[in-house]
């Protein structure tokens, strides 16, 4: 059976595209997306082509852009192109290049869908990508959900090539004379995915030449297992979770003791936006009986322990969201952000010119434990580069910070001092100097 026939059967099996759907194809110019374009065009679907130039690879990216435009014209389908200031976005947000690029392109895809009536967005991820994602999540530490690979459908986003291996796609491209370009960054081992793709996977494939097919089957079994767990968790949730107005009450004593209680609680809290590290800390406090007075935060909920029950409530505007920080157990979640902490020797700091979402602090000047909380009226600090003290409220006014963002503003505290107005400015007294030996690097990630 050739790839075109398998493509049609896969779309039908998963109901990825309906007869009246318009599909926006994300086409980079690489072999995967160019083959996807060919398959969709030959299958007669209503399609358009969207290409992003992130302006990170100079003339190489411009040649990708030109090839995609030419191929779209040959197929006679609408073509959309955009150039992003990705480096500027990285400096503004503090995100990695990959995270910034992802946010930019998906926001643009949504705009195109709304403006031109596209009902599906097709991404050219394939079976090998799903296997690589499995290993990335495995190495980073994750629950079962993180080992289920890449999902076929996520809202209007579809991945119609997940049935095909990279070898299948290359063979189709060569047999059908598909033009494509190779992204030179795919050969760089700077990124974890490439280290897995170029280093780990080839060695495993030496042991088992059918590794991709075997792992695809394994990922599917894990996906089925997660679906089974989700079904069982729905039953458990009805038995042990009570709703009281806006509050949710979880009674762990109702969990069948033959079940892994920690896992059940993890799954329950995950549904309400709590992250792994926070859930681990909450469960440890529950097990040790020392959770009284402690607060645990997700993006928009607070959890606390009361008489061995877990109470979940919406975060009120009056809640200071105050948390002790142990840099060894990051990230810490505050508002719509996650704070990642890292101890770095001064010789390993490449530049002090970092974005506002990164704080470089002199370790020797800090007093632990650090505290993260919302700013209060009366708070003040000495902004980096200034001599005098300034009220946080005045700083936010001068920076023309909108009211909703003011309410979400957090500060990092050492002793009695604000050392960082999170995402904006460090305190000048805690800056890196000529005598600094060790740096606490704090990175804010918007979630």
Descriptive account of the structure:
The chain is of the alpha+beta class. The protein contains 13 helices and 22 strands. It has helices spanning 3-14, 31-43, 59-75, 86-93, 97-116, 127-140, 166-175, 192-207, 211-240, 261-270, 276-288, 392-398, 403-407, and strands at 22-26, 46-53, 79-83, 120-122, 153-154, 157-158, 241-244, 247-250, 296-297, 301-306, 309-314, 323-325, 332-334, 337-345, 358-362, 370-374, 380-381, 390-391, 410-414, 417-421, 425-426, 438-446. A 6-stranded mixed β-sheet has the order 3-2-1-4-6-5, sandwiched between helices. A hairpin with a 2-residue loop joins strand 19 (410-414) and strand 20 (417-421). The chain is globular and about 70 Å long. The two termini are 43 Å apart.
Can you give keywords for this protein?
six-stranded mixed sheet; five-stranded antiparallel sheet
Low-confidence stretches: none
* Envelope shape: globular
The average pLDDT value, as a whole number, equals: 89
In percent, how much strand structure appears in the residues? 15-25%
Distance between the termini: 43 Å
Total number of beta strands: 22
Give the structural class: alpha+beta
> Portion of residues in helices?
25-40%
- Cα-atom Rg, whole angstroms? 25 Å
Query: Order of strands side by side in the largest beta sheet?
Result: 3-2-1-4-6-5
Total of helices: 13
> How many strands, what sense, and barrel or not for the largest sheet?
6 strands, mixed
């Amino acid at each position: 059976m050739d790839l075109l026939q398998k493509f049609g059967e896969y779309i039908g099996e998963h109901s990825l595209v309906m007869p009246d759907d318009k599909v926006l194809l994300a086409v980079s110019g690489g072999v995967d997306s160019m083959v996807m374009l060919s398959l969709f065009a030959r299958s007669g679907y209503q399609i358009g082509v969207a290409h992003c130039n992130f302006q990170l690879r100079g003339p190489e990216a411009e040649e990708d852009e030109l090839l995609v435009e030419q191929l779209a014209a040959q197929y006679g389908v609408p073509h959309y192109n955009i150039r992003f200031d990705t480096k500027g976005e990285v400096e503004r947000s503090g995100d990695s290049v990959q995270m910034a690029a992802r946010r930019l392109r998906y926001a643009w895809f949504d705009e195109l869908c709304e403006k031109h009536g596209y009902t599906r967005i097709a991404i050219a991820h394939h079976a090998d990508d799903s296997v690589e994602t499995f290993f990335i999540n495995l190495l980073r530490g994750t629950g079962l959900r993180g080992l289920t690979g890449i999902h076929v459908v996520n809202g209007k986003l579809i991945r119609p090539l997940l049935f095909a291996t990279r070898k299948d796609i290359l063979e189709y491209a060569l047999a059908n004379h598909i033009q494509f370009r190779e992204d030179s960054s795919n050969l760089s081992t700077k990124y974890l995915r490439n280290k897995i793709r170029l280093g780990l996977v080839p060695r495993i494939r030496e042991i088992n030449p059918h590794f991709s097919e075997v792992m695809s089957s394994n990922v599917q079994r894990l996906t089925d297992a997660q679906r089974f767990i989700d079904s069982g968790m729905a039953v458990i949730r009805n038995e042990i979770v009570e709703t009281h107005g806006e509050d949710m009450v979880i009674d762990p004593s109702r969990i069948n003791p033959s079940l892994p209680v920690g896992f059940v609680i993890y799954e329950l809290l995950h549904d309400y936006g709590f992250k792994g590290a926070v859930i681990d800390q909450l469960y440890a406090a529950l097990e040790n009986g020392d959770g009284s007075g402690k607060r645990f935060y997700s993006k928009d909920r607070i959890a606390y322990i009361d008489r061995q029950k877990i109470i979940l409530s919406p975060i009120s505007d009056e809640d200071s969201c105050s948390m002790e920080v142990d840099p060894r157990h990051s990230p810490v979640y505050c508002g719509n952000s996650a704070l990642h902490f890292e101890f770095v020797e001064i010789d390993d700091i490449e530049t002090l010119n970092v974005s506002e979402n990164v704080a470089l602090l002199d370790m020797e000047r800090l007093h632990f434990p650090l505290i993260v909380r919302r700013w209060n009226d009366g708070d003040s600090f000495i902004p980096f580069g200034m001599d005098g003290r300034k009220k946080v409220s005045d700083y936010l006014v001068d920076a023309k910070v909108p009211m909703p963002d003011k309410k979400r503003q957090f500060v990092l505290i050492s002793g009695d001092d604000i050392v960082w107005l999170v995402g904006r400015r460090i305190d000048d007294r805690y800056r890196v100097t000529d005598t600094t030996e060790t740096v606490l690097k704090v990175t804010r990630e918007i979630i």
